[in-house]
């Protein structure tokens, strides 16, 4: 997803308060209808709820997916990309959606989109 002027104008602005380096060099990327094997739920100390580790049946790279994005038969319900943003303190992001302790955002300066832990950002003061 890329931002248009309309998307940017309508999106709440977030400000990075803690830098985050993406740990995912080859993110999972699937289209709606793709078939996956649903694995374990995420159980780390972070407040990242309802993420499941999915392995595509076509043998491509596995990764974490919001549980609500996969039906009980292992079919993806929506297009999904696990791309994480690397962000720096005071960088501005445009909010798109929230899932299980993560925000899907767009960078103001490059319009790159991806996931950032919710704990790394705050709403821009008015």
UniProtKB/TrEMBL annotation:
SUPFAM superfamilies: SH3-domain
Protein's UniProt keywords contain Amino-acid biosynthesis: no
Key words of the record: SH3 domain
Pfam families: SH3_2
InterPro entries: SH3-like_dom_sf, SH3_domain, UCP034961_SH3_2
Domain SH3: 12-74, 77-125
Protein name (database record): SH3 domain-containing protein
Organism encoding this protein: Fictibacillus macauensis ZFHKF-1
């Amino acid at each position: 997803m890329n931002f248009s002027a309309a998307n940017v104008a309508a999106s709440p602005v977030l400000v990075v308060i803690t830098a985050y380096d993406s740990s995912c060099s080859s993110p999972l990327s699937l289209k709606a209808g793709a078939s996956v094997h649903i694995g374990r739920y995420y159980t780390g100390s972070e407040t990242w709820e309802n993420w499941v580790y999915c392995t595509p049946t076509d043998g491509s790279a596995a990764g974490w997916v919001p549980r609500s994005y996969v039906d009980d038969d292992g079919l993806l319900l929506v297009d999904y990309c696990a791309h994480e943003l690397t962000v720096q303190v005071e960088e501005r992001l445009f909010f798109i959606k929230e899932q299980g302790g993560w925000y899907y955002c767009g960078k103001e300066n490059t319009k790159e989109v991806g996931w950032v832990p919710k704990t790394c950002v705050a709403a821009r003061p008015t």
